[in-house]
Write a structure and sequence with these properties.
Blueprint: E1 3-11, E2 15-16, E3 27-35, E4 40-48, H1 51-66, H2 77-88, H3 96-116, H4 120-123, E5 131-137, H5 144-156, E6 162-164, H6 169-179, E7 185-188, H7 195-205, E8 212-214, H8 223-233, E9 237-239, H9 245-254, E10 260-261, H10 270-284, E11 287-288, H11 297-307, E12 314-317, E13 320-321, E14 337-339, H12 352-357
Bound molecules: magnesium ion.
């Protein structure tokens, strides 16, 4: 089976995020890999606001690596993808290059599982769970009253765990008061603080008992400072969505910077690299809680990957979408759980009518 086509689709589906103050396009880059056997593999590159740039990376960097190549079997994907990484390492080991590489990797795994006629989790030796608990990942809201309102709304819809993207202690305490004790509450800061300020913030939040503080420190690759915040702040720390491949994850974990590692399948290098990170996290006794605030094929890939793990949440952005590529099958149920797709490959095929309707040309 040979790769005969590489096409990046730019999709923009409007969302309603309630009282969230942060508004930014969450565009999706869907990668379509066609083959001479008639099978199609679907991939996904992180892009949000840089979808055109990432599409150009697919066209200029990924297509020449893939077109005309034989589709590797599952066991050969890691070697195939390592060669792609070697060929492209001059263009950056993180960022748009790795996002585009991630898309190809996911599409190759989708094809490999389809060729075997099994859902991806089966190919990966998983299938331990057929439903994955989701945590509601709220956008940044700001005003404590509104944070409390949205957190309570998420809880009311069945979510058993909630993550805030807030950077003030009143917002954190408002959410805790709204959802009560006992509900896992996470606080994602997106890298704003220096070390001493982050330590103060962590200590000030301790009574609200966050499950972890995520990315409190700027810059994200300063693992020594992150480790210090973890020790002196007295809270568990999560990070990893901005880490490059298993090698940087290993450095981060060996520095004892994190209690929770957060690989993002559409950023880190795809399924191949995610699996390596998961194995390394297990070896080093670090918990795994993936980054997945997106709705394209990468979300399905994350469900397939988490199906192979005994425990752990999946991140689901808390917002209403005008449409869903997967015919609304990745919404959480009344218990806050999401079903692991059982179809071949990633498990669902995209709704081509939705892709056409929301295509950005
Ligand atoms: Mg985050």
């Amino acid at each position: 089976m040979q790769i005969t086509g590489i096409r990046a689709h730019h999709i923009r589906i409007p969302v309603d995020a309630g009282r969230a103050a942060t508004r930014f396009p969450q565009d999706i880059l869907v990668l379509e890999v066609s083959t001479d056997a008639g099978l199609t593999g679907w991939g996904d590159a992180f892009s949000y606001v840089c979808t055109r740039t990432t599409a150009a990376a697919i066209e200029e960097m990924i297509a020449p690596q893939a077109l005309g190549q034989t589709v590797p079997e599952a066991s050969a994907i890691p070697a195939f993808m390592e060669q792609v990484q070697r060929n492209l390492h001059l263009f950056g080991r993180y960022g748009v290059t790795m996002f585009a590489i991630s898309a190809l990797d996911i599409a190759l795994w989708d094809l490999a599982a389809k060729a075997e006629g099994v859902p991806l989790h089966r190919l990966l030796g998983g299938g331990k769970r057929d439903r994955i608990p989701a945590y509601a990942s709220l956008l940044r809201i700001g005003k404590p009253d509104d944070v409390a309102y949205e957190a309570a709304r998420a809880q009311g819809l069945g979510f058993g765990a909630i993550k805030l993207h807030e950077i003030t202690t009143p917002a954190v305490f408002a959410a805790r008061k709204a959802v009560g004790t006992g509900v896992p509450l996470m606080v994602d800061m997106n890298c704003p603080l220096d070390g001493p300020t982050a330590i103060d913030f962590a200590q000030a939040c301790r009574e609200a008992q966050p499950m972890f503080l995520e990315e409190p420190v700027w810059p994200p690759e300063d693992f020594a400072t992150l480790a210090e915040v973890r020790t002196k702040g007295g809270l568990d720390i999560a990070a990893g969505e901005n880490a490059c491949t298993v090698h940087q994850f290993r450095q981060m974990m060996l520095a004892k910077a994190v209690s929770h590692a957060q690989p993002s399948v559409i950023k880190v290098g795809g399924i191949t690299e995610f699996l390596k990170v998961a194995a390394e996290a297990d070896r080093l006794g670090v918990k795994l809680i993936p980054h997945s605030p997106y709705f394209g094929p990468g979300f399905l890939a994350t469900l397939q990957l988490m199906s192979g793990r005994d425990e752990g949440y999946i991140e689901l952005f808390f917002m209403q979408r005008a449409a869903c590529l997967w015919r609304n099958r990745i919404d959480a149920d009344a218990n806050g759980d999401i079903e692991v797709p059982q179809g071949h490959g990633l498990g669902y095929e995209p709704d081509l009518a939705v892709m056409e309707q929301y295509r950005v040309s």
